[in-house]
Model the fold of this input.
Amino acid sequence: MAEKKSLYRFTIGFNPGDPAHRQVAELLNRQGRRKAQFLVNAILHYIHCSETPEIPETAEPPTGMGRAEMEALVVRILEERGYRKAGENQSDGQATQELPEPVLGGELDAAGFAAIADTLAAFRGKE
Done:
């Protein structure tokens, strides 16, 4: 990933389909030129508030893990959760769901690996 030109400038995109994102975007738009200070105050409060849940660290892409290993890991985790590949028979009689066909194309960069790792960590945390 290329180094940032300025460590103190950010572009943030909000999801208009998420009510929480819409609410925050509307609140930020009302801040005018005070957005940065508003965000600083909110984040520092969030970090230091005793009632705040733990903030997960950003995951780095696994060192030495290629696309095939990452796909195998994802498939293994999905199978552990009751999914199976299309055409496989379930011998123990347990109900399963079919894995969707993968959409292939492109290579994952560090951000892509981090997104997958964060998603896997989120699934593991909900067990």
